[in-house]
């Protein structure tokens, strides 16, 4: 059975939050090409311990051994940067928008 992006995103969010206590919220990020097979799944992590440096996506390849069949992108932001995103004062790249909350 092929895992869905939604299930893998939730599993990744839970794994990241359990490994990093500063992560208080995790959201899916959705892009304009989200339904394309090659489009990575994207997570926005609100992390109390991250250094504020704006939006810096970090890309990871698929890792079938860890049951992550999709490429992924993680964006760590501080709570203040997250509020700036919500208020439209800090833009997400590539036409991305906030999707469903997975954690928090």
Could you tell me the CATH topology label. Answer: Beta Polymerase, domain 2
Calculate the terminal CA-CA distance, rounded to whole Å.
29 Å
CATH architecture call: 2-Layer Sandwich
Radius of gyration of CA atoms, rounded to a whole number: 13 Å
Number of helices: 2
Shape: globular
Helix-strand makeup class: alpha+beta
Biggest sheet, spatial arrangement of strands: 3-4-2-1-5
Helix content: 10-25%
Total domain count: 1
Mean pLDDT, as a whole number?
Answer: 93
Number of strands: 5
CATH class: Alpha Beta
| Low-pLDDT residue intervals, each spanning 5 or more residues | none
Describe this structure in words.
The chain has a five-stranded mixed β-sheet with strand order 3-4-2-1-5. The protein has one domain: Beta Polymerase, domain 2 (2-Layer Sandwich). The chain is globular and about 35 Å long. It is α+β, with helices and mostly antiparallel strands and 104 residues long. 24% of the residues are buried. The protein is built from two helices and five strands, in the order αββββαβ.
Summary tags:
single chain; 104 residues; alpha+beta; Beta Polymerase, domain 2; five-stranded mixed beta sheet; 22% helix
């Amino acid at each position: 059975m092929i895992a869905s992006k939604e299930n893998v995103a939730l599993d990744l969010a839970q794994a990241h939050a359990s490994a990093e206590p500063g992560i208080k919220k995790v959201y899916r990020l959705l892009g304009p090409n989200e339904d394309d097979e090659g489009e990575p799944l994207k997570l926005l992590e609100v992390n109390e311990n991250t250094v504020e440096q704006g939006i810096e996506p970090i890309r990871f390849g698929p890792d079938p051994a860890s049951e992550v069949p999709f490429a992924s992108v993680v964006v760590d932001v501080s709570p203040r940067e997250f509020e700036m995103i919500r208020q439209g004062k800090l833009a997400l790249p590539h036409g991305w928008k906030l999707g469903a909350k997975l954690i928090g």
